[in-house]
Amino acid sequence: MEQIEELIKKAKDDSVNVSSLLRDIKMLLSELNQPLPEWVASELEGYGKAKVPKYRQIKGQMKAWNPFYGWVPVIHKSSEIENKVCTRGSGQSIRELEELLADKSSSSYEMPYPASFADQIIEGGTRTKVSLFISRTSLTHILETVRNKILDLLLELKKSDGAVERTTGEVQKAVGGMRLPGGIALGPLMFSKDGKTASTIMGPAIIPFDYGITNSLNNLNRTDLPHDEFQSAFNSQVEDLIAETLIYFQNRLKPVVKGNSGQFNSIDRCIKEYEKCEIDVKNLCDAEFLLKVDQVRGRKHHSDRRYDADYSIGEVSYDSVEKLRELNRKVHTIIHALNDSLAVTHKDYDVKVTQTANSVSIEFTATSHAFDLTRGGKTVPKKEKDSGDEGLAGKS
Q: What is the chain's alpha carbon radius of gyration, rounded to the nearest angstrom?
């Protein structure tokens, strides 16, 4: 990808500001529909109250202001105390650090301590100000570390080719789906009578579920959102997660009952439908958490609490974009745990992957059911092999 190659050249050029590279990275990841790493956003905007990384921990020399002699070194009782109080984190944005280093005449920089801290350090003495003086190389070390992190990120993107597909020279946004050998993303396989509405899903139920979760994660492509936008994002994420989960429960049960069954309009209903087939979902996965997510969905979409600034599910508050990503990953893990357990007791498909130098073939063969395409792709029991009627095998 030419854009990545160009940025790699810029990252290796010391004359290009690190802040400029960070903005370029932000734009690139947005175009690729990929989330912005938190460290990139923090380096651009500053760390604020967030904990700074180790490479931003700076050791300097503590000095106190003497009205007669100016700045004088503070003598500490032990090296242990000195190491502790003379090491501070720099949370300024990269641009602010570049502005400080722009003055070539400065060889050191002052980081004042709060007055309350100075009173503890200067025992029994006159009140005065205390500051940590750090060298110029301490700040340049931060910039060089961030430049190297940018280069590492670009090389990783280059290795995966930006996680996008290219068609006739144009970059297309990546789509979600099951990851397969060769980096292929396989989405849901649909059968449609009229070309407009899907009648059934032709393949393992876990594939469209993975597709939905990946697309949900792709929608969270910004590090931070304004308050009103985050409310909408949270509500949409909870709604989408439950929708994808309900669809999974419904389609995964079809090969078990060898047909359609029950209502799947809530997680509780799903659990009851599986109980009819003597499948205890609560013993196979963290169904209690899925129930809590569904309860929040109801609270946000079917009550006057839609715009409450309450983003808690259970004991965790999913009050940031990164937390919402964690929520997606947690639901993904829960459903995969269930799917793995069901694969042992109620196998749905045999999967065969064949990889050649130029292609990858994935073949799904239904083990106990088939699709009657004369009845809109309805799931039906699979006939015995000697009848000459095989289950549908989907290939990609």
A: 29
Q: Where are the extended beta strands (E) located within 155-257? A: 165-167, 170-172, 178-180, 184-186, 190-192, 198-201
- Bridge partners (DSSP) of residue 132 are 62, 111
396 is a domain residue:
no
Our count of domains for the chain comes to 3
Q: Please indicate, yes or no, whether residues 19 and 103 belong to a single structural domain of this protein.
A: no
Does 161 lie in the same domain as 12? yes
Type of residue found at 321? V
112 and 154 fall within a common domain: no
Structure tokens at 204: 């393992």
378-391 pLDDT, tens digit per residue, is 778 876 544 444 43
CA neighbor of 272 nearest in space, from 255, 291, 292: 291
Residue 359 domain flag: no
Q: How many CB atoms are located within 10 Å of the residue 376 CB?
A: 13
Does residue 183 sit in the same domain as residue 38? no
Q: 371 - beta bridge partners? A: 379
Query: What domain range includes position 8?
Result: 2-52+143-172
CA–CA separation, 190 vs 392, rounded Å? 13
d(CA 274, CA 268): 10
- Please indicate, yes or no, whether residues 11 and 153 belong to a single structural domain of this protein: yes
Q: What percent of the chain has pLDDT over 90?
A: 31
- Residue of higher predicted confidence among 345 and 3: 345
pLDDT attached to residue 396:
34
Question: SS3 for 203?
Answer: coil
